[in-house]
Fold this protein.
Amino acid sequence: MPQLILKADKDFSLLRRHPWIFATSVAQLEGRARGGDTVEVVAHDGKVLGKAAWSPESKICARMWTFDAAETIDDVFFKRRVAAAIAGREVLPGLAQQQGLRLIHAESDGLPGVIADRYGDTIVLALSSAGAEKWRTAIVGALKKATGCRRIYERSDAEVRKFEGMASATGWLLGEGDPQRVIEEHGVKLGVDIATGHKTGFYLDQRDNRLLLRELAQGKRVLNCFCYSGGFSLQALAGGASEVISIDSSGPALAVAANNLLLNPQLTAERAEWRDADVFAELRKLREAEEQFDIIVLDPPKFAPSASHADRASRAYKDINLLGFKLLAPGGLLMTYSCSGGISLELFQKIVAGAALDSGRSARIVKRLQGSADHPVALTFPEGEYLKGLLIQVD
Ligand code: SAH
């Protein structure tokens, strides 16, 4: 097996079981390896640290499959890891019965580059690293065995594949069917287009937070910014909101949202308004019109994919949060998120605190918010904690 020899003093993060190896840490590759091949990772002093997948095109030139030097990377390895990820979810309250569920959350489930989301009887698989790509057939087999699922659709079209020199790959890997699925979440039906929707079709990570909004919404006037297919909006309606205004700049997302309302005749559709607009501009308009809301949700796309974008992203977060504070009625609640890998929780809280100060509102955090339990964060992999949120109450 080819050996990836690290430079002196570059084994520190691996000894702490962080799964990424940066190209700048590598002294040399001994033997020949192609993208996705398994390499043995060796410290400068000759100690074998485990096995990794080789990604020659990427700055992250290898991702660890195992820190056990004796473990073999083969079909059985993927069966073990996939089965463990699914078994882990089965014992956590409320997860197993979810129709929309993340089964595999990449690095945090010991499978770098592998995302698998279940939507009812269909699994959507997204592979984003050369190693994951190489083991596609093994991963599909393992998912089939662990779940009995007969339909698997591939959505390997994330931007990050470019860093690995890999083209997009989409389509049915197992079985076939209509890419338009319907799932139920907290009793609300939601259409999910697994072929064209964002990510694998839906933002499963916000499931618990949508339930929280529902619990807060009785009699409230709600503004849902960056609403996508209306997940938060529909839960607010289900929770008895008096009015829900939802904003997104994606026409297709709003079309799904409007259709989602039709799927749920138990909800009062007249209380919902969808606005196809830029949130930054629309918030200013609402402010000029002196509108006020009891609850505002801000769930923007990732403004900072990495730390190098943090400055510009900080300004964007500050801008929308400042406007959010200004639009809140007395005693109102702001549910504000960042899903940017490049913005830490600490920085996000600072930005939001700055926004509150500039708005002249006094405000306090009443709850910290995070992704649902099917999006775990490995303790050795803090990058896994991309979604952070705050529930804030103003005076
Ligand atoms: N809260 C949603 C997920 C939001 S994803 C849920 O629970 O499902 C972010 C959304 O922001 C996407 O739908 C995208 O179309 C939208 N978006 C991105 N930039 C925008 C902008 N400047 N104005 C309005 N919407 C925007």
Summary: The CA atoms of residues 11 and 43 lie 6 Å apart. The domain at 203-394 is CATH 3.40.50.150 (Rossmann fold). The first strand starts at residue 3 and ends at 6.
